[in-house]
Amino acid sequence: MKKVAVVCNYILKPNRIGGMDRFFKLFDEQLKEQGFTVDWFFTDYTAFDFYKNLTIYSANNTSVENKFIEVSCNHHYDIIITHFTELCTKFYKDIQTYNPNSYVIAVDHNPRPLEGFSLKKRVKKRLAGILYSKYIHQFIGVSQYTVNHILNDYGTFLKKKTKVIYNGIDTDVFEKRTQENKNKFIVASHLRPSKGIQDLLKALSYLNPKLLENVIVDVYGEGAYKEELQRLTNEYKLQDKVSFKGSSSKLNELFCNYRYMIQPTYMECFSLSILESLSANIPVITTTVGGNLEVIENNKNGYIYAPGDCKALASILENIIIEKDSITENTSDLIEQEYNLEKMVKHHIKLLP
């Protein structure tokens, strides 16, 4: 019986059950159905029911990489899969030291800075690719954008063992929008500067206050930038328009209460929030970064603008509010056909030797 370890630089939270959580759970179920045993390693985890059937090691006060090495000293794994970890580090050499002949798959979800890495960091990554890529048998990017950057960062010589597997979501759990919910907007995002929510607040401040009379913007998520975003909300006198709702494990039921999702991000790999919003038949207003353009088509299932262009975002919002522009197409069909969770899991299962 082959033994699989999945190492994830990811914190499990009962108040945040999202697309990756559902992937982890279904992947575990299907691996076990095929006769594999599976151990999971996460950055932090306190037991809750959603994950009750998974065997989980929590890193707690150390890195998830160190926790895996600690455990693997006494366990042999045939297949090792990483998610959200930095690629081409000494960790991958250590994997082979303690698990010789194991098959290693590295899944890259990590966005890149809009302005790119510094020269020093680019050189460092290229050297890391030369030194440590030989310990990884398969590189997976969650979008074509990600694959392009893996090759750009670590070397084009990795092309033969690098491929795209798009993220997918469980479309069955998302309630569909059935009414207009005019001028209600949702943001679902970690609260940090790179997510660009400060730009949304500035864009709203550009609009005529009369246009905002019936506008509601609900922000779901937590993060260290929350205090600054609340300060800006007060500065722009948007307290009656923008509400910070915190994290929610019920976003699959909440998206349908809105008309559009806004994601003004500066960094993105391939956004599960976008897929989730579209699955609920909620078009998306977002930026041209990362893999966004691989799923959002301007004026068809959303609106696209350049990151940081607050005036362009303000213009999009104004045209929606005055009903000059509107997305009428059902946005959920694309997600159900191309970005569903079963398809994602099936492709990941196919990777296993």
From TrEMBL:
Residues 171-324 form the Glycosyl transferase family domain. GO terms for molecular function: glycosyltransferase activity. InterPro entries: Glyco_trans_1. It holds the Pfam family Glycos_transf_1. It comes from the Bacteria. PANTHER family: GLYCOSYLTRANSFERASE. This is Glycosyltransferase family 4 protein. It comes from Polaribacter marinus.
